[in-house]
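Suppose you are handed a protein chain with no further information: no name, no annotation, nothing but its sequence. What can you learn? This example shows the usual starting point.
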Amino acid sequence: MTLKHRNAIHKLLRERGEKVALNATWQRIHRDLEVGEVRENGKLLHFSARERDALRQLAEQSWGFDLLVEAVPPGSRAQVAAISRDEKIARQRPDDGFVLLKGRLPAPLPALPPGLSLRVPLESLDLSATAQVLVIENLDSFDDWERYRAPARLTDSLVLYRGHGGLARGARRLLATLPERCEVTVFADYDPAGLSIAASLPRADTLLAPELDERLLEKGSREHFARQSRQSAHLEGIGLDDWQGVWEEMKAHQVSIKQQHMLALGTVLRQVPRR
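A reasonable first move is to predict its three-dimensional structure. Written in structure tokens, the prediction is:
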């Protein structure tokens, strides 16, 4: 059983419910824990006070903690492993509170040679002296960053992987805590999804965009652009400031150009300030 089953049991116990609709979730609970009485021609599952107590005990035996208190225990997987058979139900994910970095790391972190990166707890970073951050959307482009034809002024940037899940939450927290004087550049795919990512970050001062030519446009995908209708609609409804010109250019060409194509073709990248 999964989180939805724990949530259903937690809600019933907390509210001292007497009956629930016998949907797929409760059918699975009833089948596995064998508690409750099916009535109304199989439409409802009824619980007496004694049966609720039995459900609570059986659930605790199954998961290792009291579902009357909470459906998901707090803490890391190591902490939850002390009370539960399934450590993966922990609220805190392994990447929560971490960021993936390379480039000009803040002191006292060591200088890294090109090609190496460091996964760092966010709380350990002193960003007070950081003057420039570059956020990169895709992991392989983050790894290959030194091979792109980017403006020389970005050489000394703290390079941050935008990531997914916990790493993405960490990246947003890092951007939100940067000093005011720090400049943030975002490098994403040249398409509605990439521009939406840049526009939605807590800090984004400039966009790294490709110098378009026929070879690069020929590599672009009209199909991928069309799939991003939700992001296109979002961009139409927000203020993009000086990135509006980039959006108009994207709409004119109707192609999605990936970061990997920019690298493969040796495309020159340019910074576009938002304001």
